[in-house]
## 1
Amino acid sequence: MREPAFNVLWLQSGGCGGCSMSLLCADTSDFRGQLRQAGINLLWHPSLSLETGQDVQQLMADCLSGKTVLHALCLEGSVLRGPEGTGRFHLLAGTQEPMMTWVQRLSAVAKHVLAIGSCAAFGGITAGGSNPTDACGLQYEGDQAGGLLGSNWRSAAGLPVINIAGCPTHPGWVIETLAALAQEQGLQAEQLDGLNRPRFYSDKLVHHGCTRNEYYEYKASAEAPGDLGCMMENRGCKGTQAHADCNVRLWNGEGSCIRGGYACISCTEPGFEEPGHRFDQTPKVAGIPIGLPTDMHKAWFVALASLSKSATPKRVKLNATSSHIVVAPVIKKTRLS
Amino acid sequence: MTRLLVGPFNRVEGDLEVRLEVAGGQVSQAWVNATMYRGFEQILQGKHPLDALVYVPRICGICSVTQSVAAARALAAACGVTPPPNGVLLTNLMLACENAADHLTHFYLFFMPDFSREVYADRAWHTQALQRFSTHSGEHARQAVAARQRWLQIMGTLGGKWPHTQSIVPGGSTRGISSSERYRLGAHVAEMRGFLERVLYAAPLEEVVALDSEAALAQWCIREPLRGDLRLFLAIAQDLGLENLGRGPDLTLSYGAFAQPDGSYTMAPGVWDGQSLHAPNIAQITEDARHAWLADGGSALPPSVGLTLPTMDKPEAYTWNKAPRLAGQVLETGALARQLADGQPLIRALWQRSRGNVLTRVLARSLELAQLVLLTEHTLRSIEPEASSCVDSRVPDHADVYGLCEAARGSLGHWLSIRDGRIANYQIIAPTSWNFSPRDRSGTPGALEAALVGAPVAEGDTTPVAVQHIVRSFDPCMVCTVH
Ligand code: SF4
Ligand code: SF4
């Protein structure tokens, strides 16, 4: 087999390490083998590499001097700019220098720069509340372009920062993006969406493939935590607006937030950390949810909802507010004669 | 005398720097620095209390379930709700799943790879260590990652996703379970048992948890030397004298693990001092910010009234971590502390001889991994499929509560104050906050700072390997520490 040639350096800043822990859950019986097979050489990763201390500093120096070609810099976690623009909320251990500065320098020599997870992409949960550390993303601050590198920044390969958003991000999204970049044809600008997320996962909505779609059709809604019904009307679910394929490409074998019994909080979207309402409740005006499905006209939604509610089968209605199926579908003959 | 600054220190969770003073070929003083601050306690202020269930798992990607459980317990105390038995058992399953994954990750990916280093090339066991644990080609490390991935599918079913599941709520678990799913989960547990019995222990789990004395352990090792990675570790430990490395404080803490529906614990709580076990007095816990870049309230404060406010210009500060103390004393927490509190006879015997050190920490964790898988089997059998696992909860306008939990790496506490229906104060003391504590106002070093003293440092060595063994033996999580 050919030697992996696509050098990836992975750094962590203002996040929780969860995207790395998620990465290790990639659907494969041979994690290292999968990377190798995709041509990816992990130069250094904080959790997976032997090198520590001085050795790592040498490795980064080699990337900066060009001795080692840095094909992709992955940053996990937001950039901490505070206090007062000094970056001292995160000094890279052993160097007495802000991680922010290291990321700027390394971005300048990297062929591609990837934001791993919503923190690195947009600021994410670390930018929540009063944003005490002045956290931002590599090229976005919430939904505003800018961030650490500025909106006009382009990598040596001519692309903006690739935002593999998600909290955490799905291992499949990361590995497939890296694998695409490692191929000769790379990744083209039109394969990224308006927020520079890879379209192969962000051209879908979480709502697609949701096991609660029948409840959704009839607006048969969950009321309490653990209920089986659709969580859009009462329990804060943003699956109809969140860009991700979570209900088609499942998590950890067979999960999704909704299948776990709680709302999609749209963790792949900028600003998800400050929705302006309780996460587990749907904000409404005059009884109608504010966040209506993407692409749907409000008047139609209201008309269809009231129509479908009046047509809700008893089975769907009862099950929606139960923790287990209490009424099974009727058995009907499915062939003529 | 020389000074060393070691960092970035990897294969720990989060960012860590260690400053060492070296004299006469060994560490004479150490300062432990957690170099990153995110401000979760500030972020949480003013939020709706139930929103904590979205924020707190994101304190840490390696033990997010534990953070959820601590928050859910604090909130349950505030709301006055008790989860139905199924809710308690499903929460325990998720906790056991995460803790076991952590122990496995720690052993294969974080701790053992150091024995594949060049400095050990002349040791008899080095070829084996390289074959099994090399970060690039280690055959057993590779299998462990695969086993971990399969095992965490349990979290996919029960928690929707891992990390950052939100199915753990004050009233129980938002995910019920059917009998067919129970069967499927059982199949995953059997896979993990298979991996451990084949690769880590080369013995049945029951045999491992029954090891009850040093003689029994010695017998067990001699019977099949080096077979299984635990025996290989024990051989390495003996060769390198890991029992004499990284002695901890003579006081350990466990809040008790796996609360049962009847209120008892599967692993008993307690503070162990080598002679006797006391119930931890939570009211005696304080945090001292003298050496942290954080506002120092003028004295060490109990977390219920704790402060977390960045204050950069403090000459004596060197970390973002505060110094937690129990009645003014330094203590160690983690699997070792849990086994001591629970009275595991082998670990108690080793403690009597050599106290907390690199060997006892890793061994306690390895035994606990077997216990956790057995606990998972047992819990699955106790669950009543199709029964309710959750009740709803209403948050009061005022409350002062706390929630405690055992993470893989030790005791975790969340202290919450609610005023006018909003979070007025939220303070977190994580396991590594205890273990990697800085000095307090009387100058007493934290557990690791003291444990590093005496570690050998070879001439010209910039990243001493003994220091690495000691640091990693605690299985630190720096993102939790500073939050
Ligand atoms: S709105 Fe949410 S719960 Fe309802 S069907 Fe869509 S994704 Fe599922
Ligand atoms: S379902 Fe929604 S909140 Fe959950 S991981 Fe997917 S995008 Fe994020």
## 2
Amino acid sequence: MFDFLIEGFGVALSPLNLGLAFLGALLGTLFGALPGIGPINGIAILMPLAYTLGLPAESALILLAGIYTGAEYGGRMSSILLNVPGDAGAVMTTLDGHPLAKQGLAGPALGLSAVSSFVGATIAIIGLTLFAPLLAEVAVMFGPAEFFALMIFAFSSMAVMMGKDPVKTAIGAVLGVLIATVGVDGGTGVMRFTFGMPELYDGVDFVVMIIGLFAISEILLMLEHAHRRDADDEMPPLGRVFVSLKEVLHCKGAMGRSGLLGFIIGVLPGTGASVAGAVSYTTEKRLSDKDGTFGKGDMRGLAAPEAANNASAAGSFVPMLTLGIPGSGTTAVLLGALMLYNITPGPMMFTERPEVAGGLIASLYIGNIVLLALNLPLAGVFARVLTIPRWVLVPAIAILAFVGVYQLHSDLTAIYLMLIIGVFGYLLRKLGFSLAPVILGYVLGGLMEQNLRRALSISGGDAGILWQSGISLGLWIAAAALLVLPWLVPKLLAGRSRRHAG
Amino acid sequence: MRIAADRLLGLALIGLAAFIAVQSLQLQVPFSYEPVGPKAFPLGLAALLAALALVLVFKPGEDGEWPAPALALRLLGVLGLLLVYALLFTRLGFIPASFLVVATLARLFDASWPKALVTAALMAAGSDFLFTEGLGIGLPDGTWLADIL
């Protein structure tokens, strides 16, 4: 049953892939540590280079996944030291992390967060190893109708979980799906929304889309943030960098629970590290905040979100590898990267391409150990990254974005398109949209339409096929429940308490 | 009544949905074996988009923070600069174009002139070396200079 893992370790332990796992971990930690550059930005900027180097699919994936998991480690640095989350997953880390730093415990806080990141990630990688092959066996039974229902479920779970405004999350996803319809229609050869531009016949290029949406819009946002100081003071001194065993043991419950919770949230399609961090923090506060110390510098309040956001990163690989449905915005980008290699992840991945699935999972085990080894002693060095001024960072991002897009197409049209998408992304972010739904919609849109049309051609046009099987019906009901319950439950509870009162 | 950003967005999205619907209806499908052609999916999405946009028009959220005029001008400056970079990228060549753009960009992000110029020189030459020598990526030499020489 675990043949894929044995083969995977064979792949991941090759010198090239070991080096890439190490490089990914290092770069990822740096990207995570830099405020504003999260895992998606890091991957967007480096993905074109991975292609240029001509890496095989599994090696490219190992590099990019290393950046992803590394960024979840690195995101905590600026949360703890500057009270500015390094990425969306590290928002809750500021709540207890920064107060600890202000009490002169910045070093131990960094150490503890590295250990809890390790624990959370380890729990989730083991979960991934055990759970993914089982899910793949179930997923073999999926036909087009089931996949279509699954995507509806993914979008509705995302609408409820992600962002403040479900309507905007839904709009973002629809816009993403619409962008995916651009180009020659595979079924009939009809051109859709190409406006006679040959560059658009193959659709909006994935790299152009990702770099425009994330890197270019980030440049514009950084200019705004440069004029609004949200960091509340100078970087506090680190103090001793090591965390004591006693402090770690004090947090073992918080780490274990949050690791499990983060894994489960990561597996749910469409929800990422930010949700995992928030849910685990509030859960841990409810369970163990007896003296009201959470939010004032409680070690457990730091350990919980850090364990959870790293666990969710590993967990989000489960639906991506087994169903081809990304568990988070970042895995959506990784899925798109795999599709560029003509690999569409799905239930057959573990049997047909075990070197990719197994190699990735094995590299996560290795990367996790590398990350702990890097992050414990080198916390001070990584913290230095925070002092890189924006006037160095921004031109560097611009150069990487331009070279990345140019060398893929040697074509200026792609660069103009990237800039247009960048402005579009900036406006969306200013209007309170999260970009992850857009990317998820863009990556899933083509598959969604294909599966819908395939299902309907099997049934001769009868839409009933979409909910005929037990699996698809169950997914539709689950999707509907997700959309209705958050709205219904508070009303029911309010009604009941009124009856009790009356 | 103040016009919230969300209301404008909602109206713009309804316009977009209408545009998509019209475009989809105009698609000429030569022949089709399947019951659902390439029109249905975008049409359905346009309808969904219009419905969601209506929610925004009638229940707009908070008006977010928008940049003050001076900052907006700088944002346009950065954007214009990126456009200039695109225009110069192949014509002037990678190193000179990058030097100019990095120096100006650094100035827009509040670096002093000496810092901006040194950063630009190091970054333009360094990235050219890294990309061409280290990674084997072909970068444009510039057509204008070649013409003159």
